[in-house]
């Protein structure tokens, strides 16, 4: 083992079994890049007429949102590159620092942050907004994975409680910002990590019962904002009544979304020419409801392709996790699998009336810089683990 | 680990399946949802400009900003469960902040937000014409004021804020009653209130542009506008008012009033109640062209400044304490005409044959006694000696006209209702007792006769009790004294300054009673005459025998030019280049609380505990008929009328105002309103 570092570099680049070029997961990178490109296209398609159709005087350029989203994408890819370079195993010691610097951010945003649609989750940084809860998803996954790795195979009730506390504190803070969707995502990711880390079936059952009781109790106590209940019940009662004006906003959102997707048919109405989505005909269209634009303009063909790209990403992440060199890498990957899969399922599902409406963005697609950067950082981490199998 | 893989793949498959059903199987049924809930968005087009006769802008438009509150901000009613948290948060935080910024007390702001029965989706303007500071704050920190929008809103601009406020009117936000009357108005539209702005509302407003847009249930517009309608800008209105003359008239009136207030009310001289100045709470000026009834100036004092905030000061502007500046005294104020009514009495006298034009009458006593009059009869400040009609007008001989009222009453009592009511008939012919038809709000006035007295007694004593019936019976007779008072413009006769000007205008031009008007033309944006543009309207022609007219005119001429004239002092040394001025003074006694005069004629005994505030001074009138040089002196072109409430003698207060204005019209340096020594006697 007296190889010089220089010799090692050269050999790694040349030897097919060790070369970074060959070890790099091109498929995952391709899937994420292609989805991001489609995302930019659909963001542009959804916002190019914003100044025209918005009633408040607006002088925004048609490419305003596209430009901002492109900056986020470039930043995200750079960060992914940086994340990929540093051996992920160093995180085993570093995650507590990341974790404890994240908590104050999550707490402070409620007080100095900006509100939007009932949620207070954004810091103003110049012309941009930063949403710490997007970053929190990654940090919590890595933290729980790190904790579980340390106690591999000995996840008793006491340690499980600590793992749940690690996840629970940021979840509570996110819920405090009124961001239920992100809280659910974190919850799902943590469960995915815990299951793989060897969660006992008994604990899983107890955990499920606990969650149901908690949510039920919140709803019954009325502390749950009523618009959220409406969103949750909206998808249970999907009539096609014409009196949409009398419907609540949640039902309306859903009706519009389904109408847009339904209009797409097999091949769609054509890029940039959706009759509803090219004029912001669906509420929250460039963000949470971006899938309606895909559905309407690109049809079943486009929608299915997009879902296939997501499936590809999830498969590559899962495969990386399954073949990772240590359980830490495996747990992180499974957390990301849970995150991507749940977000896609929840987001696409809600636009089609399969899932309740919550404010969860569609990865790489929805307009929003913090999320874009966070997902690319996640991809960077999976690539990192893939490189060091 | 494999469990997760399987679950994830199952989820993806279900998504694809659902997508397939939604897009390929069900597509036809879902598309219909896309057609729903439209809202019509109206945008006001520029309101028409109001010009003066010389083409100067009196009322224009200027851009400004208004605060629009989203529906959420005023959502305080409704089901607790359906109220959205977002709205609650925003409201509890924004309303106090907004109240502070706009300088509106918070309860007032909440009241404003909830004052109208708005639909749940309608936004409402809560403050218009923002100051630059407020505007900057709202725009720069928009994120701190959620549910509040700053929107452009054109408001009125006044080149001469002081000019003719009561005539021009102002704009206010529509209320529920307006919306019911005009369904095409939006909640945040401005509407004309009073004056020209209200009278020509539909012409000035034009038609708003509009388009339909799809909205979400919370009112968020989505999609592209359809059904676009460009609307039509408001028509411009050109007035007959001359801004320069108007402002000068207002200034003269104000000076005259100030002068009156510095003088001792002569009714108190030598009396037991001490000395009091004239109160002169207000006045009016009317300048009219006798050839077509166009109004050159219409002044009412006290006035106020034209501005966009008038609407918020209405309670003050309408209060008695500030002497109701909002009231247009020129058209709505009603006063006894006093001796100016002798024009009517003179014509009635000759028409009924009571007395001939040149027939002399010996007015030897200041008081007139007739059977049925109270012991002391009707008295005049001075006896005029032997006079005919011309001299009776010049000297304003009261007894001369008392006897006319007396003789006509005798005929009425004898059953000749037609001839007995000659005073009333001629008065009505000259337009008294009915509205003149001017575009803005006015009062009809009153020409009293037996029918009126009976109706009035019934309103005073409406009950069918014995006491009421007796009181009614005692007060509903048309008495001798009523007709004698009427002959000199006293008693129950009431006229508006505008009516009096119109009547003298008809006399001056030879008998044509024109409808007084303020609007010369209405034009569209390219200057073409718009539909509804008015034309001068001749109400009727009044037959006045030429000899009667000439003698009356000579009498009116003597008022200003003869040493016996009641306005002689006010018009002495008039620059000959001005032209000729004829006219008539009026000094009308008001109300019941008259104190004992120093002339020995007790009009009515004052109350035992005398309160000077209840004692009203005489209404001061002067109606000038002005013929500029090189025009027909027998048919004067202009009527220049001034009236000062409780201002004292017509020749002393009102006449100098008229002189100033006429000198200004003739471009001669106006004579300062003379300060007379208290107690100087001028008959009027």
Can you tell me about this structure?
The complex is a heterodimer of chains A (389) and B (684). Chain A is mainly alpha-helical and 389 residues long. Chain A has 15 helices and 3 strands. Chain A has helices spanning 5-14, 20-23, 26-47, 50-53, 64-85, 91-112, 132-150, 157-176, 180-196, 201-221, 226-234, 249-264, 290-322, 327-351, 369-387; strands at residues 114-116, 119-125, 128-130. Chain A has a 3-stranded antiparallel sheet, with helices on one face. Residues 225-247 of chain A have low confidence and may be disordered. Chain B has 684 residues and is α+β, with helices and mostly antiparallel strands. Chain B contains 23 helices and 24 strands. In chain B, the strands form 8 sheets. A 5-stranded mixed sheet of chain B has the order 7-3-2-12-20, with no helix packed on it. In chain B, a hairpin with a 5-residue loop joins strand 10 and strand 11. In chain B, helix 10 (243-261) packs antiparallel against helix 23 (650-665) and helix 17 runs antiparallel to helix 18 (466-475). The N and C termini of chain B lie far apart (115 Å). The relative contact order of chain B is 0.11. Chains A and B meet through helix 9, helix 12, helix 13 and helix 14 of A and helix 1, helix 2, helix 3, strand 6 and strand 10 of B.
Shape of chain A: globular
Largest interface: A-B, 68 and 52 residues
Largest sheet composition of chain A: 3 strands, antiparallel
Strand content of chain B: 15-25%
Strand content of chain A: under 5%
Calculate the mean pLDDT score of chain A and round it: 81
| Largest β-sheet summary of chain B | 5 strands, mixed
How many alpha or pi helices of chain B? 23
* Unreliable stretches of chain B: 74-83, 592-609, 678-684
On the 0-100 scale, what is the average pLDDT of chain B?
83
Percent helix of chain A, as a range, is 55-70%
Spatial strand arrangement across the major sheet of chain B: 7-3-2-12-20
Structural class by sheet pairing and helices of chain A: mainly alpha
What radius of gyration of chain B results from the CA coordinates? 33 Å
The number of E-state strands of chain A comes to: 3
DSSP helical segment count of chain A: 15
């Amino acid at each position: 083992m007296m190889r010089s570092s220089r010799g090692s570099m050269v050999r790694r680049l040349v030897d097919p079994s060790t070369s970074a070029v060959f070890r790099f997961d091109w498929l995952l990178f391709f899937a994420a890049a292609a989805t991001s490109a489609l995302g930019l296209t659909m963001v542009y398609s959804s916002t190019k007429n914003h100044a025209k159709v918005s009633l408040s005087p607006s002088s925004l350029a048609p490419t305003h949102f596209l430009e901002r989203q492109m900056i986020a994408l470039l930043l995200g890819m750079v960060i992914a590159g940086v994340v990929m370079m540093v051996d992920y195993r160093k995180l085993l010691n570093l995650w507590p620092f990341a974790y404890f610097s994240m908590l104050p951010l999550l707490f402070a945003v409620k007080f100095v942050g900006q509100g939007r649609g009932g949620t207070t989750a954004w810091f103003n940084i110049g012309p941009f907004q930063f949403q710490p809860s997007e970053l929190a998803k990654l940090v919590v996954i890595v933290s729980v994975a790190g904790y579980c790795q340390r106690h591999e195979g000995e996840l008793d009730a006491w340690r499980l409680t600590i793992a749940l506390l690690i996840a629970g504190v940021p979840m509570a803070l996110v819920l405090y910002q009124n961001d239920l969707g992100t809280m659910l995502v974190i919850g799902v990711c943590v469960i995915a990590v815990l299951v793989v880390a060897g969660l006992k079936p008994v604990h899983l059952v107890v955990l499920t019962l606990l969650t149901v009781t908690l949510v039920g109790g919140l709803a019954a106590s009325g502390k749950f904002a009523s618009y959220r209940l409406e969103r949750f019940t909206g998808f249970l009662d999907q009539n096609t009544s014409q009196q949409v004006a009398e419907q609540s906003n949640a039902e309306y959102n859903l009706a519009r979304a389904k109408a847009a997707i339904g209009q797409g048919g097999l091949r769609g109405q054509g890029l940039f020419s959706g009759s509803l989505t090219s004029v912001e005909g669906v509420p929250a269209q460039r963000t949470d409801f971006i899938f309606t634009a895909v559905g309407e303009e690109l049809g079943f063909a486009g929608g299915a392709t997009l879902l296939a790209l997501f499936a590809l990403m999830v498969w590559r992440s899962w495969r990386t996790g399954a073949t990772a060199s240590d359980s830490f890498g495996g747990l992180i990957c499974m957390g990301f699998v849970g995150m991507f899969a749940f977000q896609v399922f929840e987001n696409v599902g809600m636009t089609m009336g399969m899932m309740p409406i919550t404010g969860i963005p569609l990865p790489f697609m929805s307009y929003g810089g913090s999320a874009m950067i966070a997902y690319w950082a996640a991809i960077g981490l999976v690539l990192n683990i893939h490189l060091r199998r | 680990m494999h469990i997760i893989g399987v679950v994830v793949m199952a989820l993806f498959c279900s998504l694809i399946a659902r997508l397939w059903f939604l897009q390929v199987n069900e597509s036809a049924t879902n598309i219909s949802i896309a057609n729903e809930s439209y809202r019509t968005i109206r945008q006001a087009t520029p309101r028409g400009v109001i010009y003066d006769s010389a083409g100067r802008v009196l009322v224009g438009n200027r851009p400004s900003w208004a605060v629009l509150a989203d529906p959420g901000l005023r959502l305080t009613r409704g089901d607790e469960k359906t109220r959205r948290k977002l709205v609650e948060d925003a409201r509890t935080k924004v309303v106090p902040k907004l109240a502070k910024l706009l300088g509106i007390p918070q309860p007032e702001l909440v009241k404003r937000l909830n004052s109208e029965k708005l639909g749940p989706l309608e936004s409402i303007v809560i403050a218009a014409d923002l100051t630059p500071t407020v505007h900057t704050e709202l725009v720069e920190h928009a994120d701190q004021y959620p549910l509040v929008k700053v929107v452009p809103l054109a408001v009125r601009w006044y080149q001469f804020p002081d000019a003719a406020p009561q005539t021009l009117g102002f704009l206010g936000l529509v209320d529920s009653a307006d919306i019911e009357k005009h369904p095409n108005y939006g909640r945040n539209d401005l509407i004309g209130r009073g004056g020209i702005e209200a009278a020509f509302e539909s012409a000035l407003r034009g038609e708003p542009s509009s388009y339909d847009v799809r909205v979400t249930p919370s009112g968020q517009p989505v999609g592209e506008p359809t059904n676009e309608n460009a609307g039509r800008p408001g028509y411009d209105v050109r007035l007959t008012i001359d801004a320069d003359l108007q402002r000068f008239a207002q200034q003269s009136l104000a000076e005259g009033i100030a002068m009156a207030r510095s003088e001792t009310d002569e009714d108190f001289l030598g009396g037991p109640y001490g000395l009091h100045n004239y109160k002169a709470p207000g006045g009016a000026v009317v300048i009219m062209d006798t050839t077509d009834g166009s109004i050159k100036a219409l002044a009412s004092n006290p006035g106020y400044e034209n501005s966009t905030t008038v609407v918020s000061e209405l309670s003050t502007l309408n209060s008695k304490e500030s002497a109701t500046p909002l009231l247009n005294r020129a058209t709505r104020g009603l006063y006894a005409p006093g001796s100016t009514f002798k024009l009517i009495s003179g014509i009635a006298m000759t028409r009924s044959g009571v007395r001939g034009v040149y027939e002399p009458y010996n007015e030897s006593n200041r008081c007139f006694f007739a059977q049925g009059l109270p012991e002391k009869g009707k008295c005049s400040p001075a006896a005029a000696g032997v006079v005919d009609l011309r001299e009776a007008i010049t000297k304003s001989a009261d007894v001369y006209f008392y006897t006319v009222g007396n003789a006509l009453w005798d005929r009425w009592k004898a059953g000749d209702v037609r001839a007995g009511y000659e005073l009333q008939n001629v008065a009505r012919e000259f337009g008294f007792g009915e509205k003149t038809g001017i575009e803005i709000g006015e009062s009809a006035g009153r020409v009293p006769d037996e029918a009126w007295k009976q109706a009035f007694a019934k309103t005073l004593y409406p009950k069918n009790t014995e006491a009421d019936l007796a009181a009614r019976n005692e007060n509903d007779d048309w008495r001798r004294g009523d007709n004698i008072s009427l002959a000199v413009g006293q008693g129950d006769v009431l006229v508006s300054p505008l009516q009096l000007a119109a009547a003298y205008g008809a006399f001056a031009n030879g008998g044509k009673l024109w409808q007084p008007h303020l609007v010369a033309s209405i034009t569209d944006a390219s200057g073409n005459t718009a539909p509804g543009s008015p034309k001068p309207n001749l109400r009727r022609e009044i037959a006045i025998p030429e000899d009667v007219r000439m003698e009356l005119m000579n009498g009116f001429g003597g008022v200003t030019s003869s040493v016996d004239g009641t306005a002689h002092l006010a018009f002495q040394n008039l620059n000959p280049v001005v032209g000729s001025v004829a006219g008539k003074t009026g000094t009308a006694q008001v109300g019941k609380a008259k104190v004992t005069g120093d002339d020995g004629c007790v009009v009515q005994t004052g109350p035992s505990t005398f309160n000077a505030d209840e004692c009203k001074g005489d209404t001061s009138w002067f109606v000038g008929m002005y013929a500029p040089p090189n025009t027909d002196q027998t048919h004067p072109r202009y009527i220049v009328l001034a009236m000062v409430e409780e201002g004292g003698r017509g020749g002393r207060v009102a006449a100098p105002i008229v002189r100033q204005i006429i000198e200004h019209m003739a471009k001669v340096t106006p004579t300062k309103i003379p300060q007379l020594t208290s107690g100087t006697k001028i008959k009027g």
